[in-house]
Write a structure and sequence with these properties.
Layout (H helix, E strand, L loop, with lengths): L5 H5 L11 E7 L2 H10 L7 E7 L17 E8 L9 H19 L4 E3 L3 E4 L2 E13 L2 E12 L18 H5 L5 H20 L3 H10 L7 E5 L4 E9 L5 E5 L4 E4 L4 E3 L5
Parallel strand pairs: 1-2
Antiparallel strand pairs: 2-3, 3-7, 4-5, 5-6, 6-7, 8-9, 8-12, 9-10, 10-11
Helix pairs in contact: 3-5, 3-6
The structure holds biotin.
Length: 266
């Protein structure tokens, strides 16, 4: 098993900012919690927190994120982008794109993004991104990007209730994948996009995101708190909301707080 220790992640990494400081834990509560504490105390941009195991891993919408020890990438990055709070969703979009592209480069698996920030392979989830931020006077003061990737978990170790919706890279590939090589590539891909974000190349970034999107151009069904919207996903707008053309021809705008299923029959 490859161990997610700082020196190994740094060897040959080649980034300027992301991962220059790496703090690694055998076990921690949640790498996002640690990174948020560090950032609140002034820790520098690019600091990466990784763990082999989390006791309180968190997903979006207050879900738990559980991964068997030593099988996954559990990583959180501190970023300090010079952007307004309402633009922060772009960081989530580029993070999902970085993960999808890195999976493609390292494994050749056909990874795609399921809006807003899941990465899927063969229609099953392999990664999720949880972005949390602190703001001051409408600006981002810091942002923590938490990335979970299910890397080396045999298919028979997935609980039966999630085998339809979740998978691992090793299960799809038929062999184990180096977590270090994949994490390094995620950091390189994300840094490349982060530089573009700072240069305000938002249009390029969103175009790149759309190229990797499994959602745009597909029939989708979206579970909202009180109803399900079915229709054709036509685009995302500048605020990162998904635009759905429903049967009446009307376009509905869905913000990232809501969940989506790519299977039209759900
Ligand atoms: C989701 O799909 O809902 C997002 C999952 C994010 C999980 C990662 S694992 C590393 C980091 N620490 C956490 O507690 N959560 C994120």
């Amino acid at each position: 098993m490859d161990l997610m220790v700082s020196d190994e992640i740094k060897a040959g990494l080649g980034t300027e900012v992301l991962g220059r400081v790496i703090i690694s834990y055998a076990q921690t509560s949640s790498t996002n919690d640690i990174a948020i504490d560090l950032a609140a105390n002034g820790m520098q941009e690019g600091t990466l927190v990784v763990a082999e195991e989390q006791t309180s891993g968190r997903g979006r919408r207050e879900r738990r994120w559980i991964s068997p020890v030593g099988t996954s990438i559990l990583a959180s990055l501190i970023l300090r982008p010079p952007i307004a709070a309402h633009e922060a969703h772009v960081v989530t979009l580029i993070s999902a794109a970085a993960v999808a592209q890195a999976i493609r480069s390292v494994t050749q698996l056909p990874a795609l993004i399921k809006w807003p920030n899941d990465v899927i392979v063969n229609d099953r989830k392999v990664s999720g991104v949880l972005t949390e931020m602190r703001t001051e006077a409408g600006r981002v003061s810091f942002l923590v990007v938490g990335i979970g990737v299910t890397v080396n978990i045999p298919r028979d170790r997935f609980p039966a209730e999630i085998t339809e919706v979740a998978t691992s890279l090793s299960a799809e590939l038929g062999r184990d994948v180096s977590r270090i090589a994949l994490l390094q590539e995620i950091l390189r891909q994300l840094e490349h996009r982060y530089v573009k974000l700072k240069e305000r190349e938002d249009d390029t970034l969103i175009a790149e995101w759309k190229n990797l999107s499994a959602t745009i151009g597909r029939q989708v069904s979206i579970s909202l708190p009180r109803r399900i919207v079915r229709g054709h996903a036509i685009d995302i707008d500048e605020a990162g909301a998904l635009l759905i053309r429903v049967n009446t021809g009307q376009v509905q705008r869905i913000t990232a707080d809501e969940t989506i299923s790519l299977r039209a029959d759900l």
